[in-house]
Amino acid sequence: MSDVIIDIKNVNVGFNNKKVLNNVSISIESNDFIGIIGPNGGGKTTLIKTILGLKNVWSGSIKKYIHQSEIGYLPQFTPFDKKFPIMVSDVVLSGLAGKKGLFKRYNNNDKQKAGDLMKQAGIYNIKDRAIGQLSGGQMQRVLLCRALVNDPKLLILDEPSTFVDNNFEKELFEWLKELNKTIAIIMVSHDIGTISSYVKTIACVNYDLHYHKSNTITNEQLISYNCPIQIITHGDVPHQVLANHVQTLK
Amino acid sequence: MNISNIFEYTFINHAILAALLSSIICGILGTYIVTKRMVFISGGITHASFGGIGIAFYLGLSPFIGAAIFAVLAALGVKWFSKKGDIRNDSSIGIFWSLGMAIGIIFIYITPGFTPNLMSYLFGSIITVSSMELYIMALLTFVIVLVFSLFLRPILYFSFDENFAKSQNAPVDIINYTIIVLIALGIVINIKVAGIILIMSMLTLPQNTANLFSDNFKLIIIYSIIISLVGTLIGLAGSFWLGIPSGASIIFTLALIFFIAKILRSLINKKKIKILTK
Question: How much is the ipTM here?
Fold first, then answer.
């Protein structure tokens, strides 16, 4: 049983006079795990910001059947202001900013929940540290905990494995697989080789959106979707890379 | 005896009370300004308010009200311009900054037969603070303390990552606009104490001194207030002994405290490294 949680129909989005997304339609269901791929500047992040309501659409409709604060969001990694005086545990709790608004208190349950997540991500020992003292990988774990603390029904991750060490990348993807049993996940990545064994479907975004309802995709299909991305090869047969990759894993 | 009699006892009492209130106002607002990297926009608001002072002189109104209106308009104007995206944020700050100063000078120049003590607006004059101004300062201090203690978490969380907070549908704009108005009013009321030119130091030096010893938003506020109060009182005393203008003396003291703290901090760090490497 899967319900549609977000329904995007014929959406056009742009900056100033330049259209970035053309007539995009996609339905996100409650048990989806969608990998979004596409070239840089193709509109991947714009699509995510549109779903989050951070970017206004020119035309088309976005229907949300879940509340905005039930979406967990891990933004693309940007060098954060290392001088900003905030502790790790506070960054995690700030994931509740939407649910709490201005007047609701942050109670012990919230702190317990944040603590459990930090333990799971292996950052509980640095919970009282200022963010200025963290490495890129540690910060990414903190931001993942922030995205999960509000018990989201949809988790959106924009390039989550940037700056993350290989060990944690594997842990991260296993964690996401586990989460996907109960919530929907959308993940932007340019490393299609790595994500294709975890995602269920693939959306190719390059001005247009082509929704590919399978986790294996061939170069020919990518070309027909007008989605020129670099495939990281794992096999001897370059144009069958992903199908091949999945098989070798099994 | 009425409590206001104590306040009116001598100008020194006024000055000490003004120092306390302005330390609280600047300690809180300055921590927000410094951590959110809004020092330049605060400079713009401060200078733009001079336009309001000039017009108020021309119309025979209270310079405080003129400055307050201009400061709030400049604060909202800069925010509006940068949000609409047709003018770069720092450019619109520069425009408001210089236009406000120009308007102020023009109106003061065409005001017939009246030359106000411009120096006291440019460099401050804590010893001429009136009891009316003290009441306004006290009221504003109360509002600022109330807002920051009730909404400390939202303020901190929204400041850290505004886009993320917006993605959660958190009420980011109402907090932003409330605080920018408080900053505008806080700056205007402190013009009397530190002056337009020197007020930026009140909003940056104590906070950066405090930040040398703490990475905690709340503690930076508390340390800033203490540093600011100590610096203001020492600066005030210095201005009496040496017969120099109080505003400049206060800022010089705050800068001195900052540099001493900076040297102290690097000595402590060196000692720590020595212990760690042993």
Answer: 0.84
